Structures are given as C-alpha cells and as structure tokens.
Amino acid sequence: MAGALRQVEDLHLVNLTKKFGDAAAVDDLTLTIAAGSFFALLGASGCGKTTTLRMVAGLEDPTAGTISIGAKDITNLRAFQRPVNTVFQSYALFPHLDIFENVAFGLRRRGIKDVKTPVNQMLELVELSAMARRKPTQLSGGQQQRVAVARALINEPDVLLLDEPLGALDLKLRRQMQIELKRIQNEVGTTFVHVTHDQEEAMTMADTVAIMNAGRIEQMGNPATIYELPKTVFVANFLGQSNLITGAAQGRSGDDILVSAHGQTYVVPAARSTAPGVAVIVGVRPEKITVLDAVDGHRAPDAHNKIAGRVTDVSYAGVSTQYLVRTPWDQELTVFEQNVIVGDRCSVGDEVLLHWATEHTFGLDGAQDVHAGVLPEVLDLEATASALESRGA
Amino acid sequence: MRFIRRNLLGLIAILVLVYLFIPIAVVAILSFNNPTGKFNLAWTQFSTDAWTNLCGVPGVCSSFVTSIQIGIIATIVATALGTMIAFALVRYRFRGRSTTNLLIFLPMATPEVVMGSSLLALFLNLRFPLGQWTVVIAHIMFIISFVVVTVKARLQGLDPRLEEAARDLYANPRATFRYVTLPLVTPGIAGAALLGFSLSFDDFIISYFNAGTLVTFPIFIWGAAQRGIPVQVNALATLVFIIALLIVLGSQLVNYRRRRKLMSV
C-alpha cells in the first residue's frame, strides 16, 4: 500500500477539555500520539475515551484546547475536512449501498474519478473481494467490521480512529480480528487510535496504552511497563488484577522502603513506589506469588516478602490455577499458579505461605481508595459473598 | 374435533380475510353484470360491456380524471411540505416545536364534516371561487398531517451514526443529505405519498363541501347512487384496485429478484 511510504505525522492533543453542562467528560487532556503507532485509549464506560475520539474526528466540538496533526491545527476544521477517518462502534455501514459503494464513498466525495482500482485493492486487503456487490446486512459481523475498516482506510487518513470496533463480535472472532487489525496496521503504517474498555484487547494490540479515568489519563506507556509497574490504584486494579495491602512506611534500608502492615514488614524497592508520604499501599500481581504448603514454609527465600494464610478457594483453569487465600486480617488475596507442578496441589482449608520477590512489589500512594478501578459488579459480588458468609457463620 | 382445535387459528384468520375481501369481490363480480333495471344489485347476466366501454356513461371518465389530477397535485405539494416539516420537527429544537407536533395531529382528529364546512365558510368569506383549486387546497391541508407522521417515524428510526459516518468520509452537509439521508428516508416519503394519494382520491365529505360545481369521482358516485350506479363505476373501481395490487406485487417481485441475484453471486 502507498500508505506505508507516506509521511505520517504525530497527533497532538493540548489541554483538550469537553464539558457537558457542568460535568467534564474530558478534563484538560494533553497527549501526543506518535506517528504510525497503534495507540489504545483504555477505560471504563463514561471515562471520556469516546468523547476524546469524537473530538479528534470532528464530530464533537471541544470546550477548550487544541488538536493538531504535525504542525497543522485541525481544531476548527469540520469533520469532512479532516484527514481523519473513523471505524464506528456499530460500523455504521450505509445500508442502501453495496459493499463496493460503501468503500468507495470517501473517494467519490473527494471527487476521485477512478475508484475501481483502489476499492478492489482495499477489498482484497480485507479479503472481501467476493462480497463487493452484497448489501451490508447480508454480511456477518466480522465481515461488516472489515468493510468498516476498509471504508475508512481507503482514504489513507493521517489518523484512523477505532471506536470499540470489536465490541459487537463474539470472543473467538474478536481474537481473530485483533490479529487482523494489527496486520493491517503494519501494512499501511497509519496511526491507529483505538478506544476500548477491554484491557486484554488494549494490551495485545497497542504499542502504547493510555488508561483513562474520569476524563484524565491515569497512566500511559508500553503495556508491559504499565502492567508490571502501575502508578495508581486505579491502574493496578483496572489493568489486570492486583493484591493491595494497606500499610505505613517505617523507614528505608538501602534502595528499599520498609512498609509495615498488619504486624508484618514488606520490602518495596524505592524506585517502584509512587507513595509520597507515610501511607503506602503494597501491591503485587497474582501471578508473581508462589504458594507453599505451611510445612514447607522454610523453603521460601529469606529476602522474599511473605504472608501466611489459609486457602479458601481453588479454581483450576487449564493453564493455571487460581487460589484465594485468606490472611489472618481477613483479606482475600488472589494467586495464579502455572500448572507445572506434578503431584498434589493445595486444597481448600490448607495453611499456606505466600511469598514473592521484592522486585515484583510495587508501592502506591496510601491516600487512594483501594477499590478504585475495580468494576462495580465485582464489588457488589464480593459484598454479597461476605454477607452470605457472615450469615452462615 | 381434534382437527378444529388444531386449525382454529388458521380458520379464524381465513374468516377474517373473507370478511375483508367480500365487498371487493362483490364490486368486481358485479362489474361483469348486465343489470336489468337501473340498480346494479342482483346478478342477472354475464357481460363485459362495462369493461369494453369504460367511458360509456357521461361523466364517469371526466370525474375519474378530475380526481386523479387533484390527487396528483395535492400529493406532490403535501409530500414536499410535509417532508420538510418532518425534518424540522425531528432535527431542530425550536420554540413552539411541541405545539407544532400537537397541531399537526389536529386535522387527523377533526371530524371531516366540521373541517369541510369550516373550510367552505372560509372560502366563501374570502370570495374564493369554488372548484378544482379549493378542493386541492383542502386535500393538501389534511394530507400534510399524514405525510408528517409517516416521514417523521422513518426519520426517527434513522441511525444518527450513518450521517456522522458520511461527514467523517468527506461528505459536506449537502452531500450527506443527498447521498445518505435522502435515500434512507425515501421509502418513508414514497409511502407517505401513496397514502396521501389514496386519501385524496377517495375523499368525499371535504370535497363535496368545497367543490362547487366540480364533480370528482366520489361525488359522481354519490350523485349516481340516487338514480342507479352505472356498471362502469364497478369496473373503474376494480381497475383501481388491480392497479394498486400490481404496484405492490411488482415491488415485491423486484425485491425478491434482487435478493435472489445477490445470493447467487
């Protein structure tokens, strides 16, 4: 494709704000999206990610701030004047036009006479050449999705916006389309800005992920970096799962901070802590923890952080096993263990020792709510479970 | 017993359909009658006289043509105006919008006798000569409501993202309307026009008040009914019914063909 050879430029959002009445959907957002990158805006519904996208597309007017591509300010351009195209959430294919005409729409509106060659090329790219004369309703969800991508990409936009493009597809097809989209992006070299609430989708597809919450970006970077070192409780809970223990800093030992919580001391590398004061939340990802039967407790390395507890639930999930372990202070921790062990696994009721390397520990500002970023449905479920439990006891 | 229980729903459906179509069947059958007296009420003898000599009775064909002319003019004007009103009501927030929405329904709810007589009073006061144009004006007035309601429903069902997608794909407001909005609303507009035409064509009460000496098809039948309706009226009515039926069947057939063709690609 010609797109790969084209000079693409960075997309800059500067102090972008959108208010609906008094509520700020997007709050003073400043962001640079590198040319040719696959960028994901990740967040729960209502966090402002779709509004941000619509402002870039020109479908929504910002209350304040500017949008520019390279040095060119596009803030005041109308949607049809911007070198930006969108793949809509429900595809928004024109039902009265066939696939060929849907894809040719943008070219025709720009007065391009010979649409046949580019349209056929584009249909080939998305492997839909055979469907050219069908109407959108005669296509499956995955095919419609590819038409939506083709219809946008044929215009060789500087930026392609994708608004939850895979939301309507079932899980298996979604995985397939993720790979497909990634392939297309590599091939055309256009900047992709992808809005999603699916964290796995964001991590597998994007070079850079920005996690949005309440109209602001909580953390931005390479997916692995964010996952390994979340900087806020929201990110720790929203992107994957985290075990978070509230404690207080007791002092330092070399490059480490010593945090005491529930009568025990945890070591947090200072470089991995964002806590500004004494209140610290100690965090660790579930798969970093090793479970030992309490009698084998002495085998845990001395330098590791440790917690004793009792197994309350074991769920086997093929590649891994998930344990829920109740600590003496009645907090439930989650542990994922790779199923590589031969022989007995721990079972419900076992006394165990959890341990993990200090370099996997992260420290967060203790002033935050430990439940930030946990889906409300999950919180409800937990509340119900504990209510049932207390009634049974 | 068992048979009846199993097929009760189907039987009732057939009975309802029979009930609906018996009057039409009677009209069609009697168009082939050769009545003995003035009144075409009882079957006497098969004849195709009425069909071969459609305009045989003075006044039948001229009133038929008058009605069609009035229907076409009233439909075109009312559809254009009604469509614009529907767009304004759905797309824009303005002062008096909900009042307008309500007022649009009034002509549909007003008894025709009241509307016909008050229109007549208006025309007489304005010293507007009664005739074809007063009938056209009266028809436009009550058809508009139906057009607005039909087109509005279609517009409200239109996914706003389709127009956004068009804007996103370099279509300026005019092109968006021309290539996306209009084609998608056209079935609604066409439906409204067909409905409007049939309403105009068979309106009697309002037309009768405002026609002066003009004779439309329904007025002709009304007048003829006093002295005996000529068989030609049955034939013309059947003809209209057949034409309407052919239009519906034709559009169904075109759709079916298109679908078949697409499936075989």
Mean pLDDT of chain B: 89
Low-confidence stretches of chain B: none
CATH architecture assignment of the largest domain in chain A: 3-Layer(aba) Sandwich
The percent of residues in helical segments of chain B reads over 70%
Q: Residue share in helices of chain A?
A: 10-25%
Strand element count of chain B: 0
* CATH fold-level topology of the largest domain in chain B: MetI-like fold
Low-confidence stretches of chain A: none
| Major beta sheet summary of chain B | none
Total number of β-strand segments of chain A? 20
Structural class, from helix and strand content of chain B? mainly alpha
The H-and-E topology of chain A, N to C, reads as EEEHEEEHHHEHEHEEHHEEEEEEEEEEH
Number of helices of chain B: 11
CATH superfamily of the largest domain in chain B: MetI-like
What is the structural class of chain A? alpha+beta
Radius of gyration of chain A: 25 Å
Q: What does the main sheet of chain A amount to? A: 6 strands, mixed
Shape of chain B: globular
